[in-house]
Amino acid sequence: MDLKVQIKLYIRKTNFAVLLLLILIPGHALGESAAEIVKRGNTAYSLGKYDEALSAYDEAYQKAPESSRILFNKGTAFYQEGEYPKAIEAFQEAEQKSKEPLLNAYTRFNLGNSYFQEAEQKKQTDPNKALESYGKSILNYQEALELSPDFTESAENIEIARLAMKSVQDEMNKQQQSSEQQKQAAEKQESNQPGQATENQQQAAENLKKALDSLQDDSKDKQQQNSPKEDQQQGENQQEQQNQQEQGKQQQEQGKQKQQEGAQQKSEEMTPENQNSQLSDDALDILDEEKENLKHRNMIRMNGDPGVERDW
User: Fold this and answer.
1) Does the domain formed by 3-174 have CATH 2.10.109.10?
2) CA atoms of 115 and 54, how far apart (whole Å)
3) 3-state DSSP helix/strand/coil % of the chain, to nearest 5
4) What confidence tens digit (pLDDT) does each residue in 28-83 have?
5) Reported pTM
6) What are the structural domain ranges in the chain?
7) Closest listed residue to residue 89, CA positions, set 76, 101, 75
8) Which SS3 state, helix, strand or coil, does residue 42 take?
9) Pick from 33, 10, 36, 32: which is nearest to 21 by CA?
């Protein structure tokens, strides 16, 4: 049976042709059980039940592990679920097992679609990876076109992928230019900061000087306002000191006068007998002192020490 009859072409999604290979080959090619399982999987696929289709394809592949077409169908189901890395893996394995050029062309075409959708997912978060995936999609479309020159959908998708790739590249260049402008603006601002800092310091110094001058003026005004009171207080203090000095002098004079009166009174009260008694006591004290001195000199002579001559 012609392979073209077995391909349901151009299931469209986001302007890309997604090819689903329907296994309609006779039962002797895969065995009755594997063919029936694949048929069940294709029915689930057509109903949008991709998980159920994948389960059927896996079961069929266990019975026919040499079949590249089952792998192709499996990759297409992964693609419909948005599992693009798994779809790429299944399509690559299908191409390795396939000996049919036309099937390889379709496999390359769907590989291009899978890489393109992977790039669309990454272009916002990782534009460099997106550009890499766009490049791989273009290469696979080109391979498909070489294997099947009449495969016009491959040529169309090449142009679409190139436009998408250019759009991402332009956006990256725009962001890079914006980043460089911001960097230059930041460097310019930093270069202007020293001059601005000097101006700010000068202004702060002027403001500080003005504040100090104002404080000094306020202090002078307060001193002038308080000087009459201070003069009055100082005069009162001086007057008080003079009064205290005069009182002290008066007390001293009174004390001297009292001493003189007391001495005079004592002299008047002392009788001649008392005076003689006082003189006698003084003479005795002088004699006792002279005796002690004489005794001391004798002791020095006895010790052989000439001593120091004193005028007694």
Assistant:
1) no
2) 20
3) 80, 5, 15
4) 455 558 889 999 999 999 999 999 999 999 999 999 999 999 999 999 999 999 99
5) 0.55
6) 3-174, 257-302
7) 75
8) helix
9) 10
